[in-house]
Amino acid sequence: MPGITREEVAHLARLARLELTDEELDHFAGQLDDIIGAVARVSDVADQDVPPTSHPLPLTNVMRPDEVRPSLTPQQALSGAPAAAQQRFKVPQILGEEA
Amino acid sequence: MTDVIHRTAAEIAAQVADGTVTATEVTEAHLARIEAVDEKVHAFLHVDREGALEQARAVDARRAAGEKLGPLAGVPLALKDIFTTEGVPTTCGSKILEGWIPPYDATVTRRLKEAGVVILGKTNMDEFAMGSSTETSAYGPTGNPWDLTRIPGGSGGGSAAAIASYQAPLAIGTDTGGSIRQPAAVTGTVGVKPTYGGVSRYGMIAFSSSLDQGGPCARTVLDAALLHEAIAGHDPLDSTSIDAPVPAVVEAARNGSVAGLRVGVVKEFRGEGYQAGVMARFDESVELLRELGAEVVEVSCPSFDKALAAYYLIAPSECSSNLARFDAMRYGLRVGDTGGRSAEEVTTLTRGAGFGDEVKRRIMLGTYALSSGYYDAYYGSAQKVRTLISRDFERAFGDVDVLISPTTPTTAFAIGERVDDPMAMYLADLCTIPTNLAGNAAMSLPCGLADEDGLPVGLQIIAPAMADERLYRVGAAVEAAFRARWGHPLLEEAPAL
Amino acid sequence: MTVTDDLVSYEDALASYDPVMGLEVHVELGTATKMFCGCATTLGAEPNSQTCPTCLGLPGALPVVNAVGVESAIRIGLALNCEIAPWCRFARKNYFYPDMPKNFQTSQYDEPIAFNGYLDVQLEDGTVFRVEIERAHMEEDTGKSTHIGGAAGRIHGASHSLLDYNRAGIPLIEIVTKPITGAGERAPEVAKAYVAELRELIKALGVSEARMEMGQMRCDVNVSLRPHGREAFGTRSETKNVNSLRSVERAVRFEIQRHAAVLDGGGTIVQETRHFHEDNGSTTSGRVKEEAEDYRYFPEPDLVPVAPPREWVEQLRAELPELPRARRNRLREEWGISEHEMQSALNAGAIELITATIAAGADQAAARKWWMGELARRANEAGTELAALPVTPGQVARIAALVAEGSLNDKLARQVIEGVLAGEGGPDEVVEARGLKIVKDEGALGAAVDEAIAANPGVADKIRGGKVAAAGALVGAVMKATRGQADAARARELILERLGVQG
Ligand SMILES: [Mg+2]
Ligand SMILES: [Zn+2]
């Protein structure tokens, strides 16, 4: 199993929206490389014909009836907002897709 | 009144019910204890003095009105800061949630309130429950009441330290890879990870959804059972909640016995990395079980040697997704919103500033494990390991009623010792993790002090899923036998604070 | 918006290339509550008044699946001739976007609840084209952002955005076609007919009103070209949010012409998302997909698998309503109209309106006539869908009844429609307020007839002489004198009567 490079760590940080300094990048790259080296042993079973477990208990079909339950009040919903205006969450400019 | 803090929850509840003491007096005594010792221990992140007293007064009023009180009414409790509490700050040990006041109660919080349990405050924890020492908390570490320079375990170190230092008779923890049991082991207290789905996760801030499970922390097996029954049971707000009667844990705790039981010793849980004093106490526990009439056999669970690796892929993967919501848009910290920056930049700066190193490490590790080129090798394989571990358990439980092992390979290590060595830190959960992966139930209870450092050692009892009562039946028997042998509860040997 | 793309003519494009399409349609279900929480889905509610810890993505909150959401997904799957998965899971699709509270969308990935189906669509000339369905899966909608500080609410140049999460978590069914090949020059028509047929199907199932103008049904259009005779598909472009039937057709046509121009010029198509512009029918480049999006899908651990019991699926299959194409064929026969007329009614979104009008008492010819004539014209003028006009089938039926009983003629009826659309009230109120009743007063009508005869002696003589057809001129005069409110048929009778001629 290949190790992880500093560039890959920078890419992961971008994907995960984590601002990292250059020193942090170096630091994490080394640690992640160690950890990945250690956990890679799971891939010993990659070829085994074993069903993967995503849920520890074999439950299925847990559903609720389509019945309205009380919502929060808008005041409660917005109570933790870093910024709000017009009863909406105020966020910095969103770059990207033209809506 | 100072004596009330040394009583068990069962005793306090009985005395509140019969009027020997009021819930308000009990609460005040515990608040005074917190005042006196928590500067040293730092078990609490937030003490809700007013809320606690109000709840206590409500219990007293109900008693005065002649209402029948529940089995834990008026008993104070320390709640891990991972559960939402309406109107009371909830940080999950992270800067990113500093000052957040949830607009809703977790199901566990609600059930505690309904049971008349008095919530004293919120306890310290590793940030987002990621850690085994409570050192990753953004608000500073918690000390182990046995030795304040040592870790109290983690992630629920605050909850374990609170009960071990008599600041509360009960606490709630959560256990994703051992975060209830390992702190219990290193603080000489009792902690139970119920069967996955036994206790609602609604309002419990998710670390790793398929592994997380809330559970009781207490100083006695019976107290743990009483708390277990108070918080367990089906919750329609949690799709993974078990829709079946809660196992009769209190009854089991009142009827401790191992006579005729088959007990399996997991062969894989010993060897390199296991402290001699820990193994000595464990071997003694095996002998004790034999003396008490259990048949002890050795069992092998060969896939357990991959459990830690599987865990450190599954938990980070799920957490990388669960923690994506902390983006500075709707609640919590926002950093760098100077007007010129984009939402994406502000999110990135906030997460960079708001998360600690361990959280960042795990988020990146999980992001890596889930990415398209690596999914099969890492996440997919980890889930296969999970199946193999469940099969090991199934095979073992086909032969024995419960399994036992040391809870943790070593006693409490020094604060700072492993903080920048993630791999060493991760080893603390070696014996507890398989249970989280398979979803079954386990308990840790004190089995003595290690000779070399005089620190508590935990005995882990593991039961099949939905058979939580076996933990209590065995735990109560072991507890009673040790108590008889020692002449007093183990905690009494802890130095005074 | 300046369009810089070169285009080749549609005919030239088709002469060189074979278009391949893929259509992804998102349908917002009309459930009472959201997909994973009990918040109401009422349209037009106050901002953030229909939110809870779950749909706001608050720490600790958990999802629980809406049973009607699953049932609707299965019914859609069955109606699309899909197989229904005996066991499937939800998955998390991870990416950051402020309108998505958890920064992952709870969706389905490699285990959709319905897969491998088809939908037969009928083209204008009656040809039936089979569109194969890859999958239909369940997911959730995002919140709505309003961009402040930029031009016309555009995201570019905005200083900040305001977010309302009322829509976040509303159930969506995403329906994805297999690559649609073999449509040739009719590709735009096939795309439009498919979306139209799908919309009819969704409405017939009663799972959504599927109003495209309200965003209840949204279409992403993938187009690629390959030279005639080549097997391999070309690189595709993905035009997002094409939200009317006409736009679907135009977007496909535009992309075919644009791709052809790029390929003819020796260029290569970049895989990218594009935006459609209603004003001029063009598309412009959105985000280039430099690297394949890595959504890091994994099974949603907070939701347990969905394993629809076979009996349930079979019961849902048995309870499916008559599906739109079968129903249209039946109605076409009942109404006695041509394929083409039926197709026009379908394209105009008029079938439900016509049937409802018939149900309200109108005869089918009148119901069709008003919806496909005057009302279609008005909708076209106003640039809205027929169903969005402020007139109900009941009101149209009333107008038809007034005409049938002779109280209104067509010209007056059109004025009544104008009044109803202008918000002046129901048909009877408009008739009353505008004074539009046909003059039935025999005295007044008789006087007008007498006047017309007196004023046109030459015409009167011709009629007396047997040229009955000339009566039309006198009727015209009567109508003019009464400002159109006379009952023309009665006026004609009176004229002939006065002149002693048999009608
Ligand atoms: Mg989608
Ligand atoms: Zn909601």
Automatic annotation (TrEMBL), chain A:
InterPro entries: Asp/Glu-ADT_sf_sub_c (IPR036113), GatC (IPR003837). Its EC number is 6.3.5.-. GO terms for biological process: glutaminyl-tRNAGln biosynthesis via transamidation; regulation of translational fidelity; translation. It comes from the Bacteria. Residues 47-99 are annotated as: Disordered. SUPFAM superfamilies: Glu-tRNAGln amidotransferase C subunit. It holds the Pfam family GatC. It catalyses: L-aspartyl-tRNA(Asn) + L-glutamine + ATP + H2O = L-asparaginyl-tRNA(Asn) + L-glutamate + ADP + phosphate + 2 H(+); L-glutamyl-tRNA(Gln) + L-glutamine + ATP + H2O = L-glutaminyl-tRNA(Gln) + L-glutamate + ADP + phosphate + H(+). The keyword Transferase applies. The keyword Ligase applies. Keywords: ATP-binding, Ligase, Nucleotide-binding, Protein biosynthesis, Transferase. It is an enzyme of class 6 (ligase). One of its GO terms (molecular function) is ATP binding. Heterotrimer of A, B and C subunits. HAMAP family: GatC. Allows the formation of correctly charged Asn-tRNA(Asn) or Gln-tRNA(Gln) through the transamidation of misacylated Asp-tRNA(Asn) or Glu-tRNA(Gln) in organisms which lack either or both of asparaginyl-tRNA or glutaminyl-tRNA synthetases. The reaction takes place in the presence of glutamine and ATP through an activated phospho-Asp-tRNA(Asn) or phospho-Glu-tRNA(Gln). NCBIfam families: gatC (TIGR00135). Belongs to the GatC family. This is Aspartyl/glutamyl-tRNA(Asn/Gln) amidotransferase subunit C.
From TrEMBL, chain B:
InterPro entries: Amidase, Amidase_CS, Amidase_dom, AS_sf, GatA. One of its GO terms (molecular function) is transferase activity. It catalyses: L-glutamyl-tRNA(Gln) + L-glutamine + ATP + H2O = L-glutaminyl-tRNA(Gln) + L-glutamate + ADP + phosphate + H(+). It holds the Pfam family Amidase. GO terms for cellular component: glutamyl-tRNA(Gln) amidotransferase complex. It comes from the Bacteria. Gene3D superfamilies: Amidase signature (AS) domain. Heterotrimer of A, B and C subunits. This is Glutamyl-tRNA(Gln) amidotransferase subunit A. It comes from Streptomyces harbinensis.
UniProtKB/TrEMBL annotation, chain C:
PROSITE patterns: GATB (PS01234). Pfam families: GatB_N, GatB_Yqey. It catalyses: L-glutamyl-tRNA(Gln) + L-glutamine + ATP + H2O = L-glutaminyl-tRNA(Gln) + L-glutamate + ADP + phosphate + H(+); L-aspartyl-tRNA(Asn) + L-glutamine + ATP + H2O = L-asparaginyl-tRNA(Asn) + L-glutamate + ADP + phosphate + 2 H(+). Keywords: ATP-binding, Ligase, Nucleotide-binding, Protein biosynthesis, Transferase. Its EC number is 6.3.5.-. One of its GO terms (molecular function) is glutaminyl-tRNA synthase (glutamine-hydrolyzing) activity. One of its GO terms (biological process) is glutaminyl-tRNAGln biosynthesis via transamidation. Residues 352-499 form the Asn/Gln amidotransferase domain. Allows the formation of correctly charged Asn-tRNA(Asn) or Gln-tRNA(Gln) through the transamidation of misacylated Asp-tRNA(Asn) or Glu-tRNA(Gln) in organisms which lack either or both of asparaginyl-tRNA or glutaminyl-tRNA synthetases. The reaction takes place in the presence of glutamine and ATP through an activated phospho-Asp-tRNA(Asn) or phospho-Glu-tRNA(Gln). Belongs to the GatB/GatE family. GatB subfamily. HAMAP family: GatB (MF_00121). Heterotrimer of A, B and C subunits. This is Aspartyl/glutamyl-tRNA(Asn/Gln) amidotransferase subunit B. It comes from Streptomyces harbinensis. The lineage of its organism: Bacteria, Bacillati, Actinomycetota, Actinomycetes, Kitasatosporales.
